[in-house]
Amino acid sequence: MLSRTAENLYWLARYVERAEYLARTIEATLRVTALPNTYIGKTNEWDSALMTAGVSASFYEIYEEADERNVVDYLSFSSANPSSIRNCIENARLNSRSVRTALTSEMWDTINSAWIDLQETWGKGTTTREELTRFLRFVQETSLRFDGSAYRTMLRNDTYWFSRLGLHLERADNTARILDVKYHVLLPEDEHVGGPLDYYQWTSILRSVSALTAYHWVYRETLKPWLIADLLILNDSLPRSLASCYGNLVRNLDQIGVAYGRQGAAQRHARGVRNRLEHSHMDDIFQHGVHEFIQEFIADNSRLGEIITKQYLI
Amino acid sequence: MAVAFDEMNGPNGDLRPAYQELSRWLKETPPDALEHRRQEAELLFRRIGITFAVYGDAEAQERLIPFDVIPRIISAKEWAILEKGLKQRVRALNMFLRDIYHGRDILRAGIIPDDLIFQNPIFRPEMNGQAVPHDVYVHIAGIDIVRVNPEDFFVLEDNARTPSGVSYMLENREIMMRLFPDLFARHRISPVEKYPNELLSALRSVAPLSASAEPTVALMTPGVYNSAYYEHSFLADKLGIELVEGRDLIVKNDEVFMRTTEGLKRVDVIYRRVDDDFLDPLTFRPDSALGVPGLMSAYAAGNITLANAVGTGIADDKAVYSYMPEIVKFYLGEEPVLKNVPTWRCREPKDLAYVLDNLAELVVKEVHGSGGYGMLIGPAATKATIEAFRDKLKREPEGFIAQPTLALSTCPTCTEAGLAPRHVDLRPFVLTGSNHVTIVPGGLTRVALKEGSLVVNSSQGGGTKDTWILDE
After folding, report:
1. What is the pTM of this model?
2. ipTM tops the 0.90 cut
3. CA dihedral B387, B390, B396, B401 (to 10 degrees)
């Protein structure tokens, strides 16, 4: 496969995943900010939404205040924000056009129709909450349709594997970012443990990674911060957990390695990260510092991105 | 200008045989059903992403070419003439190009003036004496045909560089079959779907000697921002070959490779949709980022086939075009089957004088122009435009040719006021491999949607139709 094709497939999947994650973040933030102050405290949830999206600095270059209108606009529609939902879909379409020959018609149709809708229905952004909710659902459905059509229609060869690499790398990054911003509410020694404030923060985190229901099925317990951390970091059965993402990254990289008859730095690095996750326990992680652990993970994850790029994409 | 020949309702208003079934069907079909299908077709085009870009139009970076659902029909007998004439024409074009870049018999015979070739910016001295695999220069030709009466076919242009539009021939058919299965059942229509297969076998047949038994073919595009990008990706997909950009290719030891996830892979044949000027910054425009440094030296070493060859533009120069009847006779010893439109070469003082005296009646074209740009249609132009052209002509006469304003034939077309005749042309695609010339029975019919307009170019409000060649 052309390196550029692999690169486009990889980025296409990343952009779609990122768009979905942003939509989920906005949705979760809308829920939590709708609560009375007594439940949520004085924290600015919109500010932390910006932080989990990793765009705080660029936001404040344009806006004074992180309120709902500004943040929703910046994360969803702003053309000044390179990773706004709009730009993610635009970029996904551009990448799709570049690799049309490697996409199935179902995948193309998903991205192309989303792009058309984005212009025709959502060209002017949204004005009401209701519209916004419909928009966020549209974004999530696009991602589901894209993922589903990739899963159901792509040949299982390097085109599929590179697309999956993009997806899981982006997903791991997103989950890690939420943890990075919110880790303090997960600390067991936090003084408000178990208070209503934390409860809504926790559900908000779980909603961002579509894991609220999953939590109850896995632990059959009320929300406990260390269990939430365990679910998002170490639990292999949750599709958005770091462990699950790395299981998938290793698997897809192995398949590429077998098909090409050659393993490389990317395979070794991914295996290293996965092994570390596999052999970690939540106790140790808390003892050594959740924050440090997550920061290290984010660095490792973006390092994998660089290695994959160097090994295959250029 | 005479009343145009209508291909459905012949010269005296008599329904022509090829259109009998269609005419009956049109009478049975309510107009809003047609409109409904038209909208459906448009939706399909948008969803598939069959778009083209209009340069310099930021608002409409991607536009749809309007699709007219009424097919254009050509009888088997008419097609037989066309096919014969087109094959003859393309054989002559290839022999002419081989000659121009080697022995130049035709110049020595005094048939074409030397300076028309050597002073021509589109002539490529780099190709002098350069062998091309199997002596094929024009692998893909898109020859524009027009009619003015039931008897004759005229060639309007020989597109011998990188003709586009074949994706519309194929997609229009697919969409028509989906929208009008009943109408199809009532006709015997020659299929066009073999085109990608024929194209691939033509391209593989011209691989260089140094290629392996299974030559690797790639399609080279300028990229997603090119106006014909959809077609490039469509064809690469149908052919099952890689769609490459310049940056995907690299030349090493005069061989061409593409960068793949498994390292470098040799390429033997490039179906390039990039103009000569942009192919290799070391040979042509140094500022081109679309090309591949060293490509021309790999070409000279005989390690890569470029389709079409470099330098074919000299054969579709509009002044050279005017010599095509002589070119056909010179190389093939045959009378040309297809006519040329009478052409005044403004480079010749006698012709120029005539043209300047009759500007209001003539069509004046730039010799290197395409896409309907830089053209004067005398009868439709304002006085000021005509005068502006007069100045241009006087300043640079060798840059222009003139032709009579042809009353292009018309076909029934959906308009806001119901069915009405609109002017059409036809672009069939002629393929040349190592030892055969083939044409898929069909082509791209372009239609000028504006009433009375003669400009069929998609960049200027033209649409397309499915073209049916009946197989009687």
Report:
1. 0.88
2. no
3. 130
